[in-house]
Fold this sequence. Notes:
The chain has one domain (about 5-70, about 130-485). About 65% of the residues lie in helices and about 0% in strands.
Amino acid sequence: MNVQLLAFSVLFVVLSLIAAFLSLLSEIRGTGTPLEAKSWRRLVLFLTIMSCILPMGLSPTYNGEEPEHRDQYERLADALISGSLELKYDLVDERIYAMENPYDAEERERLGIYYYWDHAYYDGHYYVYFGVVPALFLFVPYKLLTGTSLTTYHATEIFTALHLLGLYLLFRVLSRKFLKQMSTGLFSLLFMAFSYMSCWYAIACPALYATAITGALCFGSLSLWLFAHGALEMKTGGRQTACILLACLLGALEFGCRPPIGLSNLVALPLFFAYVGRGRGKVKRLLTAFPYLLVALCLMWYNYARFKNPFEFGQSYQLTITDQSSYGNMLSRMNLSRIAHGFYYFLFNLSTPAHIISIGQLIAYPILTVSYLFPLQKSVRTEIRKQGLIPLILFTALAICVIILFEVLWAPHPTPRYRMDMNWLMGILSFLLIGLFVNVRQDAAAARKALGILCMLAIGVSILFALYPDSGNFLDYYSGEIRTWLHV
């Protein structure tokens, strides 16, 4: 066990909780923002990032000591550098190629065939079905520059830090433009609550699955920040065009990390068309969306080169416990019962203590439920219309629903890590609604104090989820040693 890393992780988590508590005191006492509000917000940003990324290196399951199938991005980088798209292994059981259906897990087990878990397998070759963009942007450059492979969880650390930075910058734009009555204390609490909520799974299990997800979150939050900054704050001109162009590129790259998160580009549509509608040259402005077409063509070529299908990312050909090659297309799995169960699982699921991390988001995080009820108040609805935020709020809610629907129809069964795909958007929507409520209810001191307490609860729930022993994370891996220390 890396005791030094554990000590630093605990230190930054404790400091972050102290910062959250001080922010709560600021809100409760009504003392206004600190004298150096900007410095305080940046300190909160730093502590939040450090408390999220430092614990990622604690478990040997994910820190590279016991990589197993979680080193696929490192291997993909080697393949890309050598001019190949397939993963090379010294030991390959050729009998799998002779199977009538290599995706039948029971048949593989019966025949005793050795295979590489959770890889895409097609026409005798192993591939990575996770998005290629993280490999292109981090793993390949790192290997070319240093001559060594980037350990996968380090990529998750980088993506998580950038995602939280993007989320912070987006919140700052929204608060400057629309939510001017939000105090520094409440801003800090909301940022911390929604940051932990958006990435607690990556803190616990940072390699491979979380790498693709946090890569998409990184590009997504930075893209939305640039869209908001460019469309709402910048003057018409070349710099604004460059800002929106970069926002489009980052938004398109989400699909090359994790396609479901790419659907969050729906949130950017009101911001993009607000940009297009300003001034002359609308056709030229629409051309800034060209990065979406370029990235789409590149991804389709990548998919066709591997699976002879431009729209197949490899999901159908993965070697796990389910045969997804027999699932058919998404439309064939569309039925109301399946969809209703999926929405229930992600939003309202009541879990037993043995499966606490599967609890629905609106149950686990009351701050979300409370804020989503604010539009029932006439004053809040009036403020939404006054600020011109109806399209942004509706498209954010739509993006959340579409992503959940996609998860239900695309994946064989929902898992806790899929919550990362929509949690950040749920936080953005909640941040907007809370800020609008504060705008119109400046006299509701008790309500603002309650919101601060709910933020603290959300922070605690996310930390609990990250600590919950599961999938070889820190407490799961070291449970025996910990019980010995505690004499239980």
